[in-house]
Structure formats: C-alpha cells, structure tokens
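BACKBONE GEOMETRY TOKENS:
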Amino acid sequence: MLFIRGGGGKIVLRVFLLCKNAIKGKGGYVVGSTWNSFTAVFNAGEGDKTFQIRWEDGYVESYTLKFAEAVKLENLEDAVAPKALAFNSPNKKMAVGQEQQLDVKITKEQMGDVIYLGYKSDDTKTLVVDEGGRVTALKIGSATVTVFPQHLVNDKDFENTLKGMKENQWKSKGFAIAPIYINKSTEDAYRKSVKYVSRLQGLDVKTDYTIYVRSVCAVRTLTDGTGGVVTQAAMNESAVDPAADRADQIEIPLPFAGEDKAKYKDVYEEPKLEYALAKCYDKKTDTWGWGTKNDYASIDKKGKIKFTGIPRDDDPLIVRVHVVGTEINAYADFSFWDNADSVAVAKKSVTLSVGQGQNLGDLLTYNLGKMKLTAYPDRSIDTEKVRNAIKSQNQSEFFTVTEGGYLRAVNGGGKLEPVKSLKACDVTHNNFGLTFSYSGYASSFLLEVSDTKKPIYSKVLSGGNGIERLLVTDKDGKYVQRRNAQGDLVYDENGDPVWTWKQGTYEISDRFIRDLGIRLYKDSQYTVSLTPIYGANKAKPATAKVKTTKIPVQDEYLENGYDDNGNLIWGCDRKGGMGITVSEGDRGLNLGEWNKTLYAVSGNTYTLTAEVDNKRGRVSDTLVWTVGDAKVASVKAAAGTYCITLTGLKPGKTTLEVKSKLLGNKVIARYDINVGAVKNAWNNAAYYGENEPD
C-alpha cells in the first residue's frame, strides 16, 4: 500500500511493512519510521523509479513512481524575498510555559513568487521559536522574534559539514571565511538595541555567498521538540489531594433520622431532597411530566404521600427522589388492590360537537368509603345498555358508542368547524407546505389544488395522515421546550424533552405534499383549499394562494432531524448540505457530506463554487455567503454566479454558511473553516497567496 505526495523535486513515499532494501536498491533512503511504516526520499531529477516489493513468498508487487506527473512543491532554490512581511496579530504577552503559533501576512512582488520563511529569537533562554514559527515562553523577561525570507542553497549541507569541524578546518570544509563566534563579551560589544552586528572580512566582490547563522547554546529540548526548557522555578507546583478508597465510603439513609441524625448531623451536610410523582398534568402548559399531584395521589415537600386513587400493578404510582444540586435520583413505585364500594353519576348531561368524543367512565364518580376516587382503573361500562338507551331516545343518528365505552357525536344540528388562517409556507418552484388553525373535531380533511383554469389535484387526508401539530421554534429554528408552572423544563417519563406547540395550529409539511406527486411549475399561480370532514358532514372550505418561485440552487435546506441513533440534531448545528467545489480540489478540499471542513491557510485565497442540482445551470437564485468570524476569514461573492472567493485572514476556526433567497433565506449549506498559520510558507505545502493553483 503506497501513499505519495510531491515536494521540492522530491517524492516522499511511505511504505507499510519492512521494505527498506527495495527502496535503497533504487537510490532512495529512509528518513524516518514507525512500528508499521517508514518514510523514504528519492531524487526526482533522476527520472521515474520502478521497483518491486516482496510481501511474502509468491506475492510480489511492482511500483512505478512517475515523477514527471507528480504534483510537486516549488523549488526552494527559487525562493525570493517578498515585498513586505508583517506578523498577524501575535499575542505579545505570554505566561511562562505558554505556546503560540505565529502567523505572517505576506505581500508578494509577483504573484508566482516562491516564499520560504525562517524565524529566530534574540533571547532563546527567554523565548524559543521553531522553524515553523511556534513560540514557547521559557522564563520571565522579554525577547524579540524576527521572521525573514530565505532560500535553499544547493550542495551546501551546513548541518553535516559543521559536524565535528574544528576551528582551523573551515577552509577545507568549503567555507569562505572563518566562523565568527559571539559570546557574552562580544555580544555586549556588537549589540545595538536588539540587533546583532557582525563584520565579515576577506570576501571577494561580485561573488555570491550564503551566510549561515545558528545558536549553539546548550538548551534542553522540550517534549514537543521546539527546544528550550521550563525550569521548576518558573512554574508553581500544584497540590493534589489523595483519592479516597472505596473502603472509606459509607451509606446513610436520607433524610437523617433516629440514631443517624444524632450521629452525623455535625459530620456531614445533609443534602436537600425534592419529591415528585410521575404522570402529573400541568393545565397551564398542557403537558404531562413530573410534579406533586396526579390522578392517584399527591406528595408534599417531606415526601409524605396522600392517595386519592387506586394504582394497580399495570399502572403503578411512581415516585422520584432527587438530590438537589446533583444528577442523583432514586425511584419507587406503589400499587394495591382496593375496590370502590359505590358509584354515582357525575354529570346529568353533556354537550358534544360533531366529531367530539367523551369517555363514559369519566361521567361517573367512584367512592371508597367517604373518599371520592380521582382515579379508579376498574371502571366498567355496560356499553349495550348505553346503546339501547340512545336507540330508545331516537338519538342513534347523532351518537355512537365503542366497545371501550367511548361516546362520540357523529351528527348534529350545528355545522362542522371550518379551518382558519390557511397559509402557504416553504414554497419552491415545484412544491409548498401549509399551516392552519383548527378547533373542531373533523376525522379527515379534503385537500384540493387548482391552477388558474382547472382543478389539478384532490385527496382526502384521513386519520390525521400528513397533518401534524405545529411546534414553536426560536430564532435559530430550535424547538422550544415546555416549562411547568414553576418554570422548570418539562420531560416525559422517558426523560425526553416535551416541546411546545402552538395551541390549535397545524401544518402539512412540504415533504408530505411533495410525496403526494402534485405536478407544479415554476413561477406559477395556484389555489389550495382545505375542507374538514366528519362522516357526511363537511365544513366550509378554506383557501390560500400559492405563487411558486423560480428554480432555487437546490430544494433542501438544513432543518432539524435525527441521526442514526435517534438523537435530535438542530438545523442550526448541522454541518453539510449543498456540495461546494474548492479551487484546490486535487488536495481533497471539496466540501460535502463526506468532508465537512475546509482547512485553509492564512493569506491564501480560494474560489468556492456551489454544486447545483441537476439541470440547474441557469443562475436564477441568489446565494448569501457568510462567515461567523470575519476576523478569521472573509468571503466575496461574484455577481451573477454561484461562486465566491474566500480568504484566510488569521489562524482560527469559523463557520461558512450559505443561504438561498428563493428558499426564504434558509441555510442550504454549513461547513467548518479551519485557518492555519503560514508557518514557513513552504513545507506545509499550502501557501500561495492569491496565486491559486490551476
């Protein structure tokens, strides 16, 4: 298995397993290795390389490295000085031991100039900097870091030449003049402000020379390899308490009582406990959840329970004890088998609208002794007697009774309640959604669509099919969780949030209507009507106008949804959406569902192009491109296109969002942008400024 990347006339090759002999046999050499791989370097100037790797007996693979076709870095021998260099918002105040990555703004003389940067510190005992511009503060004090342009000098391997060289061997090693060493005394003599000045004598005129400067002070290396050392004196020690063993733990029933109360009251702080019952109804918020009173019982602040109903094994009373200020909860359940000893009529009469129902059991009162039961599971109704009573009173045309004892009005003297406030939403070139208000009891709704000349679609939506409650959302598009009368967030028995929905307000989503297969055309007028139905009863139709749009760049936007594990993902947090082509597509920077992060370099400019849906080459939509942090990156749209230029401004993270005006300014794409520092402008293989690669 091979991984190849180009660089400066060289090809770096990683080969898994031990294949060093095959590499060496073709003029390559190993420069590093791990437990299952190593890195080797070839001279690309020697032409293509073909070699074989014998993985095992009978299994030999042949590889050819085609250097002429490889994408290579520019030759550092051609590196030149830029027009201007400037540090990009460095942190000038650092704590001892703190690190930061310096970034540099580069202004080129020519667009195609090759830039290669170096860094140095004037006081490596105070501040050390590596070749990529990463700085480490070693001790209290001040130091100056300088960034400078440099280039590669061929056939001048200073590091290897200097190894073992004595002072009198400089000429035989190829140096023009003797090395100049700056110690403490000469440093004071030559220093001017924060600059070092050294006089070079014995050089010939009209001759190019390479000057090599290095620090030879003995500074130990940090664990990250940046150099330098942070002493104990520079850092404060931290104290860590010894951990308690499990044997030291004790269990104490709460609340404190009896002997425990006297024994532990001055030793431990007794936690505050809160008591709650499951299946409590909050009338103000129309929610079910944890509370202090339900149909079966009530519980006070001390945990005392008063039963008003009879919970059974199949529907027990569930009690929760919560330790305030923690996530600790304890649960218990209660059930028993007492029976009611008397029953009475709760209401002499009840009025129902068409389609409205009533549980007959709720029209009766059950008593246990003198106590009126608020919940009694064994409520049995002789439904046949009720049907006979309805028949004898000539009311069969108006009422029905189910086997479960549920009374429903199927007809009446009044009219069925109509739909109100019918409006179109999420309108596109070929689809729409609907919202409406309804307070009646219809069993189905007739959906009809007409163009300006004739009806084009009709369907009865029965059993609530396609019609859902409209949830309340905030400015970010997140559902609003319900709160109880005390202002606490409401959860159901499974611990899931209970969302707030608009009372009496419903929607038919654009997704549902799309699946109906209604054929619509762009930029056209339609009339939609919705009629409530119950049996033979029909309400007055409600109508709304729909004006379809021109063709948007795509149909979908980033809305709320669920992942594979059933976890809710907010639309405002989603990454992905519409694909985006990046000018450096050969480096795997295209943005889509498989790659949701653009790794950019400070100072680089990238061309980003929206990947439109099929058959949408015409620019009919307007896209709005924004970044969350305008100090990290900037965007500039090209009028009349689906393209922008994005420029990295400084190291940091931000988010790119794209909105479609034809989709009501909804977000259709969202991706992370990570901007890295220029470093030395070369071996990170990415800096080119505005000179984007082809």
